[in-house]
Amino acid sequence: MGAQRVFLFDLDGVLVAETGYRLAVQATFRDFMRQWGWNLPTPDQPLMALYESHGIGSEWDMLPLMLLAVWEGWAAQHGPPPEDAGARALPPPPPPDYHTPLRRLAPHLRSGAYPADVAWECQQDPATAAFPRVGTTALARRLLTHSRDVRRNPVTRRFQERVLGSRAFQATYGLPAAEETASLLRAHDRGLLAPATRAGLQKAMAQGALAAAAYTARPSHPPREIGPLPGYAPEAEMGLAAAGLPQLPHIAHGHLDYVRRRCGLPAGQALLKPAPFHALAALFAALEGHEWPALQRAARWLKGDPAALHGLPRLRVYGFEDNISGLQGFRTAAEVLRAAGVEIDLHLVGIAAEENKKAALQTAGAAVFPDINDALRAIAPDIAG
User: Fold this and answer.
1) pTM for this predicted structure
2) How far is it, in rounded angstroms, from Cα 290 to Cα 292?
3) Burial 111-136 (b: 16+ CB within 10 A, else e)
4) Average pLDDT, the chain
């Protein structure tokens, strides 16, 4: 019997254009520049790709690091930011140096820890600090800590307002919005699959010739078998709708948060890619077609139950990613399965057109294609046509 073919897709940059999130990064950056009385150029696509090439794919990490790079330049001229930095008019900073803090931070990034948290840890020692002039000031603490909590981190809160729009933000979190805004995701999410390729994928899944799931760090509802709950932003679901695959099983940030709470698992960053838990749960969701049972099975594995990995067929898994952290998650999950005796043939597929990202994905061992349609034409001509 042949191996079961499984496709695991990242969303942003693979199935969906990242335009909405990228515009939200720029809008949030401008919001803070306006608040601080400054006028600096907004981050462009190559700069965001540079962060991604270092494994910093979440805007909840990317934005605080960008904003602190601005303050690092300010501190070089004026000394450490005062306690009330950002609350009163201060002289403008020089053009930011985003590259040097990234180079300082990159060696310390690790699986199971959010980059913003790692940056704050590194700030405790001037020898490891990515922003040594800013140090452990109140400003650095505000921007870097609690990066996944809209109630405690001002950058995350403002970014979520821009992503969801004011009405959905208030409905999701029960918090007032700073101003009336439209959802940048709803306005700008755009599916990247060609119609014929999407139809081929759906047909292959319906016929049992292919198992597939999305594997994304986007916020989301809890598993669809549970249903929507307050505090869970439906960003993954919005992306799947834009991709034309609303019924595709998926494992996203909200799913991981829900299983963590229900099953007493470690903090969310220990479950999110590049942790193998995320990729294993996505694989189980693809094979079973259900999200909550897949998460429970992954939870049993994490708690040390070897039977959670029993009964799997021979697998030929293709992991489609535009970020090295996701590739690392695929690889470590495959190692877990092989150690349990599962036959798995893993293919890492990078999706990138920008040179920094292409180089990073190739270095991580991926075959790189400029877009998902090119990748599927090469890998699965029976589907892509």
Assistant:
1) 0.88
2) 6
3) bebbbbbbbbebbeeeebbbbbbbbb
4) 95
Bridge partners of 345? 316
* Average pLDDT for 334-342: 97
Given the structure tokens 């800013």, which residue do they identify?
Answer: 134
The answer to whether 156 and 61 are in contact (CB under 8 A) is: no
Cross-sheet strand order for the sheet of 211-215 = 250-251, 211-215, 4-9, 315-321, 344-351, 367-369
How far lies 333's CA from each of 112, 210, 301, 317, 363, in Å?
14, 19, 11, 11, 19
- Distance (Å, rounded) from C-alpha 198 to C-alpha 210? 13
Cβ-count burial 349-359 (b if 16+ within 10 Å, e if not): bbbbebebbbe
Domains and their CATH numbers in the chain: 4-15+188-384 (3.40.50.1000), 19-186 (no CATH)
In tens, the pLDDT along 114-166 reads 999 999 999 999 999 999 999 999 999 999 999 999 999 999 999 999 999 99
Residue whose entry in the numeric block shows the structure tokens 């934005």: 63
Q: Residue count of the chain, please give it.
A: 385
AA identity, residue 253:
H
> For the CA atoms of 240, 246, 248, 254, what is the dihedral angle to 10 degrees?
60
Per-residue pLDDT tens digits for 39-66:
999 999 999 989 988 989 899 999 999 9
Phi/psi region, residue 366 (left: phi>0; alpha: psi -120 to 50; beta: rest), is beta
How far apart are alpha carbons 377 and 367 in whole angstroms?
Answer: 13
Taking residues 271-280, what's their average pLDDT?
Answer: 94
pLDDT, tens digit, 9 for 90 and up, residues 207-249: 999 999 999 999 999 999 999 999 999 999 999 999 999 999 9
